[in-house]
Amino acid sequence: MSERDSQPAKSGKRATINDVARVAQVSKKTVSRVINQSPFVREETRARVQEAIDELGFVPDPQARGLAFRRSFLVGMIYDQPSPTYVVNMQQGILDALKGSGLELVVHPCSRTSPTLLKDIRGFVERQRLFGVIMPPSVSEDETVIELLRELDTPYVRIASIALDQPQNMVVTNDWIGAAEAARHLVDLGHRRIALVRGLASFRSSVVRGQGFIDALKERGVDLPPAYDIQGAYTFDSGREAAHALLSLPEPPTAIFTLNDDMALGVMQAARERGLELPRDLSVVGYDDLPMAAHIWPNLTSVRLPIRDMGRMAAEKLLAPMRGVDPARLQQPEIRPSLVVRRSAIQV
Amino acid sequence: MSERDSQPAKSGKRATINDVARVAQVSKKTVSRVINQSPFVREETRARVQEAIDELGFVPDPQARGLAFRRSFLVGMIYDQPSPTYVVNMQQGILDALKGSGLELVVHPCSRTSPTLLKDIRGFVERQRLFGVIMPPSVSEDETVIELLRELDTPYVRIASIALDQPQNMVVTNDWIGAAEAARHLVDLGHRRIALVRGLASFRSSVVRGQGFIDALKERGVDLPPAYDIQGAYTFDSGREAAHALLSLPEPPTAIFTLNDDMALGVMQAARERGLELPRDLSVVGYDDLPMAAHIWPNLTSVRLPIRDMGRMAAEKLLAPMRGVDPARLQQPEIRPSLVVRRSAIQV
DNA sequence: CGGCTCATGGAAACCGGTGTCAATCATTCA
DNA sequence: TGAATGATTGACACCGGTTTCCATGAGCCG
């Protein structure tokens, strides 16, 4: 084990604001001003206080500060997203942005179908007096939850595939484009009989992605017959069933686009159950680009969303007021997914 | 959207302990006693106070309470585990146990190789005055971190594959058995040339699992020649390389056991790159039973660990003192993994 | 019936910061 | 030079709980 740092132990006791005040020969209120970057402190005084802070290794107690501010230094991530990869990457992104800010991330999974959803969230947010809340789909699309957060006067940022809210409260992913790219890719490979397996209709992403796919096909002069437009549920099994249905058609598709990777796996499974060889007999394109997409056989062509960056941006929006950032400058460009071409979709 | 509950809005303001005291006609100290379940309150009084609490919907402020207790109501999960599935499941388990306790979960990924590891953790734990910390491997195996937590006088629970600490601080998984089961399974299928791809040597699990595998083979009279014992790194690529090495041997194995599923995928990839057909030409068994194990082709036989339960147990150990549970009664049975038999390993 | 212990409840200080508002200081204007 | 003006700073109450210490009433014994 290599050598590691660690604080000089500070005599076992944490320094308080009073200690700093004594050392710097000022009142605790002035120390508080320095901590909170108040502009009403003479530079000379500020420097003296800062020196005392550094010398004592003083770090203000978040609980005491929070009590006085009537707001904690905790950011809540409320999610009902079932994909572990999505969740962990987003947590990472949020933590990237939170680093050094003194804020911490509290995770709070939930179920939109639970009858106690609102009570749970209210309890969580209100009790902890959260600094802010970040929500990915699909809970980000639940207006009753948003209404609750507004009532509780808690800042929030929603991540979703369409702008449901003011820019400072949204990180928008352009899922239309992602699906459109997939469509163009398949058409360019020569496919004409291309099927679509959608996700849960209750997810906006499913609608937006589906539309992007259909629009792009149309652009290229390809039609999506109703029989090729299947409603899935974002699960492996729903993908499998959809594929069996599609492949039983008198004129089965030569390519299938699924709105997430789990369903793509289900499609591949079904194809093999029917004795097809992949990718020769069927091209498949997924959405999400899970790590395993690159690890399965054949490697899955998929649409990648920069989840971690999305988490980071969401957290930055939450931090903006604290940092005095102009909200207008915050209107980051829309998140654009990119198609990662691998070997599951080939020339027809 | 169906009807949902939600508190009756309580006139916009949260009730404080003073409000409760006024309504119940007692001092705030008495209310405090009721909240903290002090035995020195007459039953009649306690009931009256409880009634007032319920009527007002009073919930004590964790920040104020924490300030007075000099300890927050936050549980930290510190991890360097790269598998999203593992992390999310463990978070779920911890939250299962925390539900209703008033504690929240704060996540804190870290890197054991970072030169600032200890400083980071110290800052996190000390600043937040964490109620406790839960650590899965491999950070749970880092004694410098444990030493730090002891110095900070912060309760912790370690999850690991061997008992590194006192029972109240440990959730132990019996990885020896999991690997042994895999070995027996392969031998029972008729395999004799069985190879092992280990994980990072810095993970205890890799050592324990490897030993379990070797011991069980020996039990069955099968030997593991050095050329069949490959050091991997728990990554897809390391599994792939290991398999290429193994399959280039003059006498290649007919089965490969990898100490996690990612490497199993790498092995499968390598096999296909060499034109082998799975599972006919090579049996593969993994460890972890990631969700995708059941979704890839051929379905991966793998060893499953009840990660969520492990997280729950860890959190319960942390809560035990608060609940006045006898630490002796806490010595839950060791966690036993189970082999999930699928189709990636077949009769030779 | 007085004295004493035990169980309870209350007043006030404290946890470690922040807000309010008035006092102090340095400059500038008349 | 005195007063006005604006920049700095500090005293004190307060955030919402807990703990310490003391007072009070009840029950018990001689």
What does this structure look like?
Two copies of one chain form a homodimer. Chain A is of the alpha/beta class. Chain A has two domains: 133 residues, Rossmann fold; 130 residues, Rossmann fold (3-Layer(aba) Sandwich), CATH 3.40.50.2300. Helices cover 42% and strands 14% of the residues of chain A. The first copy, chain A, has twelve helices and eleven strands. In chain A, the strands form two sheets. In chain A, strands 7-6-8-9-10-11 form a six-stranded mixed β-sheet, sandwiched between helices. In chain A, strands 2-1-3-4-5 form a five-stranded parallel β-sheet, sandwiched between helices. In chain A, helix 7 links the parallel strand 3 and strand 4. The longest helix of chain A has 17 residues. Chain A is elongated. Chain A starts with 16 loop residues before the first helix and ends in an 8-residue tail after the last strand. The N terminus of chain A is likely disordered. Chains A and B meet through helix 4, helix 5, strand 2, helix 6 and helix 7 of A and helix 4, helix 5, strand 2, helix 6 and helix 11 of B. The structure holds a DNA duplex (30 and 30 nucleotides).
